[in-house]
Backbone:
């Protein structure tokens, strides 16, 4: 392994620990992959992040020997959708998969996130799609994920969790934080009657405005964000404690 690959492997571990420490994931349910040359580097299956070491990160070829891997540990059980998304989307280099609280709540209802907030535009369209359901680790789930992510930078997986993409790992994690934040906001609007939806024209205008600013993602893991427990349905949304600021927001 060269110095660059070593750095990518350590960065994957650092981001895994960050997302668990900040409530974006729980246990070993999440996974991360990063494109490197003609392969992907992906988290191993079932290894606690606090004990994970760079040599445990598996390497999988992108264009040959589908499903083959190198390393002392097996790749994540979700390796199929990591591999298939990376093959289908040459514009992205990193994938973050989490079971974050609010995104998963909405995924359990099998609903898309509609244009309830202008930041939806950052994901490439007027909504964040929710895929149908298929068992974890299957070709069927991989196909559903690739379809839900067409022209998008994130999606919900039906009754499962979320996927966020980026041309760097930092940006993929930025999208994961943003998706969870929008999911939380949308969830709370449902408690008080629902959000007023933005029009396609407003979303398109926002997307055009974002092109000049970029995502402003930092060259390091996003700053910590608190992901609070979901409010009970009978409690007003106003009772929820405010969270700290989100990482690297888009200027709008």
Residues:
């Amino acid at each position: 392994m060269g110095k660059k690959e070593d750095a990518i492997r350590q960065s994957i571990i650092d981001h895994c620990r960050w997302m668990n420490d900040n409530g974006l994931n729980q246990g070993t349910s999440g996974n991360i992959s990063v494109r490197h040359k003609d392969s992907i580097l992906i988290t191993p299956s079932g290894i606690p992040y606090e004990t994970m070491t760079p040599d445990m990160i598996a390497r999988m070829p992108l264009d040959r020997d589908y499903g083959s891997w190198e390393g002392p540990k097996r790749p994540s059980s979700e390796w199929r959708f990591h591999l298939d998304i990376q093959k289908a989307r040459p514009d992205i280099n990193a994938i973050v998969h989490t079971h974050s609280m609010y995104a998963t709540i909405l995924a359990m209802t099998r609903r898309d996130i509609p244009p309830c907030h202008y930041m939806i535009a950052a994901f490439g369209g007027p909504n964040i799609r929710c895929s149908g359901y298929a068992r974890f680790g299957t070709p069927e789930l991989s196909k559903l994920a690739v379809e839900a992510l067409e022209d998008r930078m994130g999606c919900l997986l039906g009754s499962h969790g979320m996927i966020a993409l980026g041309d760097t790992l930092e940006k993929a994690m930025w999208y994961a934080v943003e998706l969870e934040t929008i999911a939380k906001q949308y969830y709370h609007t449902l408690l008080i009657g629902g959000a007023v939806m933005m029009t396609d024209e407003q979303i398109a205008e926002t997307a055009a405005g974002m092109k000049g600013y970029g995502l402003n993602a930092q060259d390091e893991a996003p700053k910590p964000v608190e992901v609070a427990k979901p409010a009970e349905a009978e409690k007003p949304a106003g009772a929820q404690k405010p969270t700290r600021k989100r990482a690297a927001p888009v200027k709008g």
DSSP finds six helices and six strands in the chain. Confidence is low (pLDDT under 50) at residues 216-252.
